[in-house]
Design a protein that fits this description.
Blueprint: E1 7-11, E2 18-23, H1 37-41, E3 48-53, E4 57-60, E5 66-69, H2 85-104, E6 112-117, H3 119-130, E7 137-141, H4 151-154, E8 164-169, H5 177-189, E9 194-199, H6 207-222
Parallel strand pairs: 2-3, 2-6, 6-7, 7-8, 8-9
Antiparallel strand pairs: 1-3, 4-5
Helix pairs in contact: 2-3
Length: 223
Amino acid sequence: MTQPLEHLSVDTGDSPEDCIVWLHGLGADGHDFEPVVPQLAAMLPHATRFVFPHAPVRPVTVNNGMRMRAWYDIASLDIAGRQDEAGIHEATDRVEALLAAQARQGFEPGRTVLAGFSQGGAIALHAGLRHETRLAGLLALSCYLPLHDALSTEAAPANRETPIFMAHGSQDPVVPQVLGERSRDCLREHGYRVAWHSYPVPHGVCQEEIRDIGEWLGGILAA
């Protein structure tokens, strides 16, 4: 049985209508993107619930087996090479359980955005494209599309038209931008609508990026 993810929730107002589930990167936790909530809230059309789950703690091979919060294992510096398929599927199951829990609280998939940064962004793409019900949008930051060869057979028809926002730092030494660009091209070749943004920063987000994210979120949640 899939264990529920520990998480924190932040409501931007009373009776939130929309939900944004945001997955952190390797070694971080759910508090990592909590500080962006006030800035984004000012650009959203309705009160919104932000849900920030904590990844399970596990040993990570590329970090000499050190235990840390990680959505899946990374075997080498070639992060898109030998991939932890079992770990990626396990993380996807956990995210599915979290989305189902939010739906039971009244946040239907059509009012829910699945977001993530770095390793969390990879899982957001993998899980979101396979989700059986249409989501409001997918937000993928400084990441890549894992197990891309399986997309054509595993993708859910319900999310074929779901808008996708991808952003990357052109100076990223952790997840090189070329991996993001290849993932963007793969998604577009499969017919997905991808809004692509690049910023002159390393592995992280900048104020211009947060503003662009807010405008994009405001547009899709107002629709």
